[in-house]
Protein backbone atom coordinates (compact mmCIF):
# COMPACT_ATOMS: atom_id res chain seq x y z
CA UNK A 1 0.00 0.00 0.00
CA UNK A 2 2.80 2.47 0.93
CA UNK A 3 6.03 2.08 -1.01
CA UNK A 4 8.97 4.44 -0.54
CA UNK A 5 12.07 3.85 -2.64
CA UNK A 6 15.48 5.51 -2.14
CA UNK A 7 13.87 8.71 -0.88
CA UNK A 8 16.18 11.70 -0.45
CA UNK A 9 15.38 15.19 0.75
CA UNK A 10 18.10 17.83 0.78
CA UNK A 11 17.54 21.38 2.03
CA UNK A 12 19.76 24.27 1.08
CA UNK A 13 20.80 26.41 4.06
CA UNK A 14 23.05 29.27 3.03
CA UNK A 15 26.17 27.77 1.53
CA UNK A 16 25.58 24.21 2.66
CA UNK A 17 23.25 21.31 1.93
CA UNK A 18 21.41 19.63 4.80
CA UNK A 19 20.42 16.02 4.10
CA UNK A 20 17.18 15.36 5.97
CA UNK A 21 16.38 12.00 4.33
CA UNK A 22 19.16 9.85 2.92
CA UNK A 23 17.95 6.93 0.81
CA UNK A 24 14.88 5.85 2.79
CA UNK A 25 13.29 2.66 1.42
CA UNK A 26 10.14 1.37 3.07
CA UNK A 27 7.18 -0.87 2.27
CA UNK A 28 4.01 -0.99 4.39
CA UNK A 29 1.47 -3.68 3.39
CA UNK A 30 -2.23 -2.92 3.09
CA UNK A 31 -4.11 -3.17 6.37
CA UNK A 32 -1.06 -3.03 8.65
CA UNK A 33 0.07 -0.53 11.28
CA UNK A 34 3.71 0.47 10.86
CA UNK A 35 5.70 2.59 13.29
CA UNK A 36 8.51 4.99 12.38
CA UNK A 37 10.50 5.68 15.52
CA UNK A 38 13.41 8.01 16.09
CA UNK A 39 14.72 10.85 18.20
CA UNK A 40 14.20 14.53 17.42
CA UNK A 41 16.10 15.47 14.27
CA UNK A 42 16.04 11.94 12.85
CA UNK A 43 13.96 13.04 9.85
CA UNK A 44 10.51 11.84 10.95
CA UNK A 45 8.66 15.08 10.19
CA UNK A 46 10.43 15.47 6.85
CA UNK A 47 9.34 11.95 5.94
CA UNK A 48 5.71 12.84 6.70
CA UNK A 49 5.96 15.99 4.58
CA UNK A 50 7.38 13.99 1.68
CA UNK A 51 4.73 11.28 1.99
CA UNK A 52 1.98 13.90 1.82
CA UNK A 53 3.85 15.89 -0.86
CA UNK A 54 3.86 19.00 1.31
CA UNK A 55 7.56 18.85 0.40
CA UNK A 56 8.69 17.46 -2.93
CA UNK A 57 11.44 14.84 -2.51
CA UNK A 58 14.83 15.72 -3.96
CA UNK A 59 14.93 12.23 -5.49
CA UNK A 60 13.35 8.82 -5.07
CA UNK A 61 9.73 7.76 -5.23
CA UNK A 62 6.62 7.65 -3.04
CA UNK A 63 3.69 5.45 -4.06
CA UNK A 64 0.31 4.92 -2.41
CA UNK A 65 -1.63 1.90 -3.68
CA UNK A 66 0.59 1.82 -6.74
CA UNK A 67 0.13 5.50 -7.64
CA UNK A 68 3.41 7.38 -7.86
CA UNK A 69 3.02 10.70 -6.00
CA UNK A 70 6.42 12.32 -6.28
CA UNK A 71 5.84 13.37 -9.89
CA UNK A 72 2.09 14.07 -9.98
CA UNK A 73 1.02 17.40 -11.41
CA UNK A 74 -0.16 20.18 -9.11
CA UNK A 75 -3.65 19.73 -10.57
CA UNK A 76 -3.75 16.06 -9.56
CA UNK A 77 -2.00 16.57 -6.23
CA UNK A 78 -5.13 17.50 -4.24
CA UNK A 79 -6.94 14.39 -5.44
CA UNK A 80 -3.94 12.25 -4.47
CA UNK A 81 -3.75 13.84 -1.03
CA UNK A 82 -7.40 13.01 -0.36
CA UNK A 83 -6.37 9.36 -0.28
CA UNK A 84 -4.17 10.15 2.74
CA UNK A 85 -5.70 11.11 6.09
CA UNK A 86 -3.44 13.09 8.42
CA UNK A 87 -3.61 13.06 12.23
CA UNK A 88 -1.47 15.67 13.97
CA UNK A 89 0.15 15.78 17.40
CA UNK A 90 -2.15 18.50 18.77
CA UNK A 91 -5.18 17.80 16.52
CA UNK A 92 -4.92 21.32 14.99
CA UNK A 93 -8.64 22.00 15.29
CA UNK A 94 -10.28 25.31 14.36
CA UNK A 95 -11.29 26.90 17.68
CA UNK A 96 -14.20 28.81 16.14
CA UNK A 97 -15.80 25.63 14.80
CA UNK A 98 -17.75 22.96 16.65
CA UNK A 99 -16.75 19.32 16.64
CA UNK A 100 -19.11 18.61 13.74
CA UNK A 101 -17.93 21.66 11.80
CA UNK A 102 -14.28 20.66 12.23
CA UNK A 103 -14.99 17.19 10.86
CA UNK A 104 -17.00 18.69 8.00
CA UNK A 105 -14.23 21.08 6.93
CA UNK A 106 -12.37 18.75 4.47
CA UNK A 107 -15.68 17.80 2.85
CA UNK A 108 -16.67 21.44 2.43
CA UNK A 109 -13.34 22.19 0.76
CA UNK A 110 -14.07 19.68 -2.03
CA UNK A 111 -17.64 20.86 -2.53
CA UNK A 112 -19.50 17.91 -1.01
CA UNK A 113 -23.30 18.48 -0.94
CA UNK A 114 -24.60 19.62 2.45
CA UNK A 115 -26.81 16.61 2.99
CA UNK A 116 -23.93 14.23 2.37
CA UNK A 117 -21.67 16.30 4.64
CA UNK A 118 -24.18 15.99 7.50
CA UNK A 119 -24.54 12.24 6.96
CA UNK A 120 -20.79 11.66 6.77
CA UNK A 121 -20.06 13.76 9.86
CA UNK A 122 -22.68 11.85 11.87
CA UNK A 123 -21.14 8.53 10.76
CA UNK A 124 -17.64 9.60 11.72
CA UNK A 125 -18.54 11.05 15.11
CA UNK A 126 -20.29 7.82 16.02
CA UNK A 127 -17.28 5.87 14.77
CA UNK A 128 -14.90 7.72 17.11
CA UNK A 129 -17.36 7.84 20.03
CA UNK A 130 -18.14 11.57 19.95
CA UNK A 131 -21.71 11.65 18.64
CA UNK A 132 -22.83 13.37 21.87
CA UNK A 133 -20.27 16.15 21.41
CA UNK A 134 -21.19 17.33 17.91
CA UNK A 135 -21.98 20.87 19.08
CA UNK A 136 -19.05 21.24 21.50
CA UNK A 137 -16.14 23.55 20.72
CA UNK A 138 -12.49 22.41 21.05
CA UNK A 139 -12.06 24.38 24.29
CA UNK A 140 -14.85 22.29 25.84
CA UNK A 141 -13.18 18.97 24.99
CA UNK A 142 -10.45 16.98 26.72
CA UNK A 143 -7.16 16.29 24.98
CA UNK A 144 -8.24 12.78 24.06
CA UNK A 145 -11.58 14.02 22.71
CA UNK A 146 -9.84 16.64 20.58
CA UNK A 147 -7.60 13.95 19.15
CA UNK A 148 -10.67 11.87 18.32
CA UNK A 149 -12.07 14.85 16.43
CA UNK A 150 -8.77 15.08 14.55
CA UNK A 151 -9.00 11.39 13.65
CA UNK A 152 -12.60 11.76 12.46
CA UNK A 153 -11.60 14.76 10.33
CA UNK A 154 -8.71 12.76 8.83
CA UNK A 155 -11.19 10.06 7.80
CA UNK A 156 -13.71 12.46 6.26
CA UNK A 157 -12.59 11.94 2.65
CA UNK A 158 -12.50 8.13 3.05
CA UNK A 159 -8.71 7.77 2.69
CA UNK A 160 -6.78 4.57 2.03
CA UNK A 161 -3.91 5.57 4.32
CA UNK A 162 -3.86 7.19 7.75
CA UNK A 163 -0.66 9.04 8.68
CA UNK A 164 -0.35 9.81 12.39
CA UNK A 165 2.39 12.26 13.39
CA UNK A 166 3.09 11.85 17.14
CA UNK A 167 -0.65 11.31 17.77
CA UNK A 168 -0.33 10.62 21.52
CA UNK A 169 2.72 12.55 22.73
CA UNK A 170 0.54 15.25 24.35
CA UNK A 171 -1.74 12.75 26.12
CA UNK A 172 -1.65 10.98 29.49
CA UNK A 173 -0.95 7.20 29.53
CA UNK A 174 -4.56 6.05 29.84
CA UNK A 175 -5.77 8.34 27.05
CA UNK A 176 -2.79 7.29 24.94
CA UNK A 177 -3.87 3.65 25.19
CA UNK A 178 -7.46 4.59 24.32
CA UNK A 179 -6.40 6.49 21.20
CA UNK A 180 -4.10 3.67 20.08
CA UNK A 181 -6.90 1.15 20.59
CA UNK A 182 -9.17 3.39 18.51
CA UNK A 183 -6.61 3.58 15.70
CA UNK A 184 -6.28 -0.21 15.62
CA UNK A 185 -10.06 -0.63 15.69
CA UNK A 186 -10.45 1.81 12.78
CA UNK A 187 -7.74 -0.05 10.88
CA UNK A 188 -9.73 -3.27 11.25
CA UNK A 189 -13.13 -1.77 10.47
CA UNK A 190 -12.10 0.40 7.52
CA UNK A 191 -9.22 -1.72 6.17
CA UNK A 192 -6.86 1.21 6.54
CA UNK A 193 -3.11 1.19 6.21
CA UNK A 194 -1.66 3.17 9.12
CA UNK A 195 1.74 4.81 9.52
CA UNK A 196 2.53 6.15 13.00
CA UNK A 197 5.43 8.55 13.49
CA UNK A 198 6.53 8.47 17.12
CA UNK A 199 9.42 8.66 19.55
CA UNK A 200 7.65 6.47 22.13
CA UNK A 201 8.35 2.74 22.30
CA UNK A 202 5.07 2.27 24.18
CA UNK A 203 3.19 3.36 21.05
CA UNK A 204 5.05 0.77 18.96
CA UNK A 205 4.32 -1.97 21.51
CA UNK A 206 0.62 -1.17 21.78
CA UNK A 207 -0.32 -0.43 18.19
CA UNK A 208 2.21 -1.51 15.57
CA UNK A 209 2.64 -4.68 13.56
CA UNK A 210 6.05 -3.61 12.27
CA UNK A 211 8.57 -0.85 12.96
CA UNK A 212 11.46 1.07 11.43
CA UNK A 213 14.17 2.94 13.33
CA UNK A 214 15.03 6.23 11.61
CA UNK A 215 18.34 7.85 12.45
CA UNK A 216 20.04 10.78 10.70
CA UNK A 217 17.70 10.41 7.76
CA UNK A 218 18.34 6.68 7.29
CA UNK A 219 16.41 3.57 8.30
CA UNK A 220 18.91 1.59 10.36
CA UNK A 221 16.58 -1.21 11.56
CA UNK A 222 13.35 -2.53 10.12
CA UNK A 223 11.02 -5.50 10.46
CA UNK A 224 7.96 -6.97 12.13
CA UNK A 225 7.81 -6.61 15.91
CA UNK A 226 8.64 -10.29 16.32
CA UNK A 227 11.64 -9.97 13.98
CA UNK A 228 13.19 -6.89 15.57
CA UNK A 229 12.62 -8.05 19.16
CA UNK A 230 14.25 -11.39 18.32
CA UNK A 231 17.55 -9.76 17.34
CA UNK A 232 19.56 -10.01 20.55
CA UNK A 233 21.79 -6.94 20.83
CA UNK A 234 19.71 -4.92 18.38
CA UNK A 235 18.72 -1.44 19.42
CA UNK A 236 15.02 -1.96 18.82
CA UNK A 237 15.13 -5.26 20.67
CA UNK A 238 16.78 -3.63 23.68
CA UNK A 239 14.29 -0.75 23.64
CA UNK A 240 11.16 -2.84 23.15
CA UNK A 241 12.10 -5.56 25.66
CA UNK A 242 14.62 -3.94 28.04
CA UNK A 243 16.21 -5.51 31.07
CA UNK A 244 15.87 -3.53 34.29
CA UNK A 245 18.98 -2.33 36.09
CA UNK A 246 22.65 -2.94 35.40
CA UNK A 247 24.96 -5.85 36.06
CA UNK A 248 26.00 -5.60 39.76
CA UNK A 249 29.64 -4.64 40.22
CA UNK A 250 30.11 -6.97 43.21
CA UNK A 251 29.19 -10.19 41.43
CA UNK A 252 31.38 -13.18 42.31
CA UNK A 253 33.63 -14.57 39.59
CA UNK A 254 31.81 -16.33 36.78
CA UNK A 255 29.98 -15.53 33.54
CA UNK A 256 26.96 -13.35 32.81
CA UNK A 257 24.71 -14.64 30.04
CA UNK A 258 22.02 -12.62 28.32
CA UNK A 259 19.26 -14.84 26.92
CA UNK A 260 16.46 -14.03 24.48
CA UNK A 261 13.86 -16.56 23.46
CA UNK A 262 10.29 -16.71 22.23
CA UNK A 263 7.34 -18.92 21.39
CA UNK A 264 7.24 -22.25 23.18
CA UNK A 265 10.64 -21.60 24.78
CA UNK A 266 9.21 -18.55 26.59
CA UNK A 267 7.04 -20.77 28.78
CA UNK A 268 9.59 -23.54 29.33
CA UNK A 269 11.58 -23.88 32.61
CA UNK A 270 14.85 -22.90 30.93
CA UNK A 271 16.70 -21.86 34.09
CA UNK A 272 15.79 -24.89 36.18
CA UNK A 273 16.61 -27.05 33.17
CA UNK A 274 20.16 -25.62 33.03
CA UNK A 275 20.61 -26.14 36.78
CA UNK A 276 19.54 -29.80 36.61
CA UNK A 277 21.27 -30.73 33.35
CA UNK A 278 24.65 -29.17 34.22
CA UNK A 279 24.48 -29.47 38.03
CA UNK A 280 25.20 -25.80 38.60
CA UNK A 281 23.73 -22.84 40.40
CA UNK A 282 22.04 -20.20 38.21
CA UNK A 283 21.42 -16.70 39.55
CA UNK A 284 18.76 -14.69 37.70
CA UNK A 285 19.89 -11.04 37.72
CA UNK A 286 17.09 -9.50 35.67
CA UNK A 287 14.24 -10.56 33.43
CA UNK A 288 11.39 -9.36 31.26
CA UNK A 289 8.58 -11.41 29.72
CA UNK A 290 6.13 -9.80 27.33
CA UNK A 291 3.88 -10.49 24.36
CA UNK A 292 4.96 -8.45 21.33
CA UNK A 293 3.74 -8.76 17.77
CA UNK A 294 1.51 -11.66 18.78
CA UNK A 295 4.44 -13.68 20.16
CA UNK A 296 5.62 -14.29 23.72
CA UNK A 297 9.22 -13.23 24.44
CA UNK A 298 11.50 -13.74 27.43
CA UNK A 299 14.65 -11.67 27.97
CA UNK A 300 16.87 -12.73 30.88
CA UNK A 301 20.23 -11.91 32.39
CA UNK A 302 21.72 -14.76 34.43
CA UNK A 303 24.99 -15.43 36.28
CA UNK A 304 26.87 -18.72 36.17
CA UNK A 305 29.47 -19.32 38.90
CA UNK A 306 33.16 -19.91 38.18
CA UNK A 307 33.66 -23.57 37.36
CA UNK A 308 30.40 -23.97 35.48
CA UNK A 309 30.77 -25.45 32.00
CA UNK A 310 29.82 -22.18 30.29
CA UNK A 311 30.71 -23.36 26.79
CA UNK A 312 28.55 -26.48 27.06
CA UNK A 313 25.67 -24.48 28.58
CA UNK A 314 25.88 -21.88 25.82
CA UNK A 315 25.94 -24.56 23.11
CA UNK A 316 22.94 -26.28 24.69
CA UNK A 317 20.95 -23.03 24.81
CA UNK A 318 21.76 -22.13 21.22
CA UNK A 319 20.84 -25.63 20.05
CA UNK A 320 17.49 -25.10 21.77
CA UNK A 321 16.82 -21.97 19.70
CA UNK A 322 17.76 -19.47 22.41
CA UNK A 323 19.90 -16.46 21.52
CA UNK A 324 22.87 -16.06 23.91
CA UNK A 325 25.44 -13.36 24.57
CA UNK A 326 28.20 -14.00 27.16
CA UNK A 327 30.26 -11.60 29.30
CA UNK A 328 32.76 -12.35 32.04
CA UNK A 329 31.67 -11.18 35.50
UniProtKB/TrEMBL annotation:
Keyword Cell membrane in annotation: yes
Location of the ABC transporter domain: 2-241
Keywords tagged on the record: Amino-acid transport, ATP-binding, Cell membrane, Membrane, Nucleotide-binding, Translocase, Transport
Alphabetized Gene3D superfamilies for the sequence: 3.30.70.260, P-loop containing nucleotide triphosphate hydrolases
UniProt xrefs under SUPFAM superfamilies: ACT-like, P-loop containing nucleoside triphosphate hydrolases
SMART domains, A to Z: AAA, NIL
Superkingdom, taxonomy of origin: Bacteria
InterPro entries in the record: AAA+_ATPase, ABC_transporter-like_ATP-bd, ABC_transporter-like_CS, ACT-like_dom_sf, MetN_ABC, MetN_ABC_transporter-like, NIL_domain, P-loop_NTPase
GO molecular function: ATP binding
Pfam families membership: ABC_tran, NIL
PANTHER family in the cross-refs: AMINO ACID IMPORT ATP-BINDING PROTEIN, METHIONINE IMPORT ATP-BINDING PROTEIN METN
Protein name per the record: Methionine ABC transporter ATP-binding protein
Organism: Arthrobacter halodurans
